[in-house]
Specification:
The protein has about 250 residues and is of the alpha+beta class.
């Protein structure tokens, strides 16, 4: 039976000499894998939709085993991302993190819209590092590791000067900072940004531009937090870290 889905290619895997397996994140069916037979042939009609980050409408045969791709119509290839090694690296991290934190065939229209909007903004020249930080903040809920961002994790006070405690999984106010001697002291702006990143729909963000100092604070918090609680070790993340040393 033929099924139709609007989806984004998260990853591609070679299968034999001429075939590809595509891991798709779709609006209608969640994360699925489809076989694109002959997609590696130069003149294949499936070649164009068998590339990472491609956003397309897919027609596939549904079965109890591997689904088979019948047709794909590209909506957006995100060519600017794919032609830029830095944007490709950040987009790869977004799609790999999404892949690791979602289950097969679990519908999630919110996450579909989120990743689509992130790729659109990255393709339109927004800062890819900030877009990744927004995504990482939002995905703490999907990963089941959301930190306390609304109040002091220790005394529940919502007013004061805050630091971030990885150990306590959230903000500590100035009265409770002694609870964690390894807390991360951060700017008030960084406190507000973490809250905004988690709650605000990305469609409502204006032009995204942050100072390097602020991005560094956000990177330190999110990297340390994910290392402590997620259990993830992603190839795309290691590549970004290596790239930053170039």
């Amino acid at each position: 039976m033929l099924e139709k889905a609007e989806g984004i290619v998260l990853r591609t895997f070679a299968y034999g000499e001429t075939n590809n397996i595509l891991r798709l994140f779709t609006r209608e069916a969640g994360k699925i894998a489809v076989m694109a037979r002959g997609a590696k042939k130069p003149k294949s009609r499936l070649a164009a939709v068998s590339q990472p980050f491609v956003y397309a409408t897919f027609l596939y045969y549904k079965s109890s085993g591997m689904k088979t791709l019948n047709q794909g119509d590209t909506i957006d290839s995100f060519r600017i991302i794919r032609n830029d090694i830095v944007r490709t690296a950040y987009a790869s991290y977004i799609t790999e993190l999404l892949d690791k934190l979602t289950e097969e065939q679990e519908k999630n229209p919110y996450l579909f819209e989120l990743i689509l909007q992130l790729l659109e903004r990255m393709n339109d020249d927004d800062d890819p590092e900030v877009l990744v930080q927004i995504f990482e903040t939002k995905m703490t809920a999907q990963a089941g590791i959301k930190p306390e961002l609304e109040q002091c994790v220790h005394c529940k006070n919502k007013e004061g000067t805050f630091s971030f405690s990885v150990k306590e999984a959230g903000f500590l106010c100035h009265r409770c900072k002694a609870v964690d001697e390894n807390r991360l002291n951060i700017q008030p702006k960084t406190v507000q940004l973490l809250r905004t990143f988690f709650h605000l729909d990305i469609a409502r963000f204006g032009s995204i531009s942050l100072k390097e100092e602020t991005k560094k604070e956000l990177r330190t918090i999110l990297d340390t937090y994910y290392q402590e609680y997620s259990g993830l070790h992603l190839k795309s993340k290691r590549f970004i870290e290596q790239m930053e040393k170039w």
